[in-house]
Amino acid sequence: MIEARAVTLSFGETPALRGADLRVAEGEILAVMGPSGSGKSTLLHCLAGILVPDSGEIHFAGQRVDTLDEGARSALRRDRFGFVFQFGQLVPELTAVENVALPLLLAGTRRRAAITEASAWFARLDLDGLQQRRSGELSGGQAQRVALARGLVSRPQVLFADEPTGSLDSLTGEHVMDLLVGSAREQGTTVVVVTHEARVAAYADREVIVRDGKVTSLDAEPVRS
Amino acid sequence: MYTLSVYMWCMVLGMSVPLTLLGLLEREPSHGYDLKRDYDTFFGRGKPLPFGQVYATLARLARDGKVVIAVEPGDGPERKRYVITESGASEVNAWLVEPLAPEPHLQTVLFAKVVLAIMLGRPAEEYLDTQRRAHLARMRELTEVKRGGNLVDALLADHGLFHLEADLRWIDTTVARLDALTKEVAR
Ligand SMILES: Nc1ncnc2c1ncn2[C@@H]1O[C@H](COP(=O)(O)OP(=O)(O)O)[C@@H](O)[C@H]1O
Ligand SMILES: [Mg+2]
Fold first, then answer.
1. Which residue from A10, A22, A31, B2 has the least number of CB within 10 angstroms?
2. Least confident of A11-20, B102-111, B148-157
3. Is pTM, for the whole model, over 0.90?
4. Where do the Transcription regulator PadR N-terminal domain residues begin and end (chain B) (predicted)?
5. In 3D, which of A164, A138, A142 has the Cα closest to residue A151?
6. Which residue's CA is the nearest one to ligand 1's atom 13?
């Protein structure tokens, strides 16, 4: 469903990716592991059409992504992809439920319908009663679950998560992963989750390791197709 | 100082003494004395392998056809040189290539495998990656148990997960230091 072929990307003099190959099957939950600075986030950003590789190819659902212009990639991200980052990055001026509704609003859903759909996620992610809070009034784990709801609310085909538990203690982090994996399975969402923690990666179906800008462990093929 | 970790080391490594000696023999035919010296240097961790155990192990390996004894003219035990057989060599290879069953506290045996792999010019990083996959596969199983189970299952699974995680971090650290370890072993 998503594929990177021989992707390279440098930031000025710093090579971040040096020929990264990766295939993710539809419905698969893939953990991307590796030491810090090895290129995990850069790879995720290339797969998601946020960054454009210097060379190599990115394919999504049979379509070449890296050759699309910024407008087309931005539409792809909005319509097909969901995102969760290490620090929830909620909009502080909005309430929790408005934050979750944001992707729907941006995609043109009417406000009332968007808020209703967003609200449904609060029960699902153990967030009942927190709809009207602002991000400053949420604990780290709550904020991250709100961010997860925002990532999933538009029922994306792929959820990209970059260290989604990186700022949480281990129990809270596992709660987030449990809900992430449960929800993704329920709606058939493919997940690419970057993490350096083995206990987080153990929630995935499969793992690959990024070392020095290359993906190792490619011998383990996707378990679903 | 005889700490608990040294004790653990001896217990766990004890299981792999025959394979470790066989591995050392795969480099070149050796006398019992040289084997003991190399074993103590790389795997002894302050607790030398008794001569008695070296010769008893070698005798058992000879009986099982893993080594043959080449007797040189002269007196004393050092007349005997031990030579690994095909069967012995394939046993070492199988041991190096196969990941260990992912149970906690394996790092001592793993360490022996890594050092031997380096000595024998085998792909130590590949072996460690294979082990890493076996560990993570086990961690996935335990995570599944935890997600589906009651609190008791979850707590027991967590205990295994934390220990396997510790081993995995050791594996990652070792991979990151393989170049340095190779220099150390080659000295
Ligand atoms: N925006 C950037 N500008 C310059 N260098 C960057 C930038 N982003 C990442 N890098 C560099 O690229 C390499 C890979 O970074 P990254 O993909 O963030 O690694 P990881 O997520 O595995 O920690 C690192 O050396 C990092 O310093
Ligand atoms: Mg990163």
1. B2
2. B102-111
3. no
4. 21-92
5. A164
6. A16
Residue B4 CB-half CA count within 13 A: 1
CA of A46 to the centre of ligand 1 (A): 12
Q: Which residue has the tokens 């790389």?
A: B42
Residues B129-139 pLDDT 10s: 899 999 999 99
Pick the CATH number of A2-216 from 3.90.79.10, 3.40.630.40, 3.40.50.2000, 3.40.50.300: 3.40.50.300
> Are residues A199 and B136, on separate chains, in Cβ contact within 8 Å?
no
ipTM above 0.90, yes or no: no
Query: What would the two tokens of residue A156 be?
Result: 């994306």
Which of B138, B143, B177 should one mutate to test binding to chain A, selecting the residue with the greatest count of A CBs within 10 A?
A: B143
Question: SS3 of A39, please?
Answer: coil
**Average pLDDT of chain A, as a whole number:** 91
CB contact under 8 A, B140 and A202: yes
- Please check whether residue A216 touches B, CB under 8 A: yes
Percentage of chain B exceeding pLDDT 90: 38
